[in-house]
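Notes from hallway chat w/ T.B., transcribed later so I don't forget. T.B. wanted the structure written out for a chain they're using in a teaching module, and asked if we could keep both sequence and structure tokens in one place. Agreed to drop them here.
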Amino acid sequence: MTNDIKLYGRVFINATVKAVTGLHIGGSSTGMEIGGIDNAIIRDALTSRPYIPGSSLRGKMRSQLEKYLNLRQNNSVGQVKIHTCKTAAEYDRDGGCPVCHIFGVPGEVEATGPTLLIVRDTLLSDDSADDLRKAHTDFAYSELKTEVAIDRVTSAASPRNIERVPAGAEFGPLEMVFSIYSEADIGRLKYVVEGLQLVEDDYLGGSGSRGSGKVAFIHLAVTARKSTDYSKLLNYADGRPMESLQELSSGYTALQAWVKEAIL
């Protein structure tokens, strides 16, 4: 590996995240006067609006891509197992591990290089906040879902309450920043698009196997900046938004060619 790092440019993916079913991304209920909630959602400290942490979406994308690419879960982060390339040779083998290049590796690992992907926190949209206020939901911007576990022997019910952002709420704009340090990084961009598709086909947040967390990425736009004229923002497809992630995915070959021409 070389110590020389040159930033050729950045690609920006913007989108709206729509909760197709109720969305639960856990937070802390400390200090909240909401009796009976077992699992509170995460909220902005200043506005009390729910939001999607960039770490939640980024972590879910990484987890899904690790499974998709059949990568070994060989590194412990707290109680969680993730894939991490342990050596520079492993990091760069066969064109480079896309997951470790895109999402990074712990600092103590020999295999090091610039992390390619930034995912920003995504706030509840103003329109959805207004709609939820008018709907008089159970709590501010959220609903209460009661789930019940039934004892298989005694039939005794054990209910628990989960706070969710109601279906139909929209968060945005989502901003993802993908940095290009080499021509190979342009090829790795496709894993970001595939990672979004894997999340859309799975779920985001908690209680996904019980119906929560189905999301859709809509109103997508792609822009770029190149290092030789970084002040200029370049628009893919003349700035025309794509209504669905499938539209972006199906035209990925054209997107890749545009990124290469725009940045290198």
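Follow-up for T.B.: The chain has one domain: 9-29+51-136+166-263. Might be a good example for the class.
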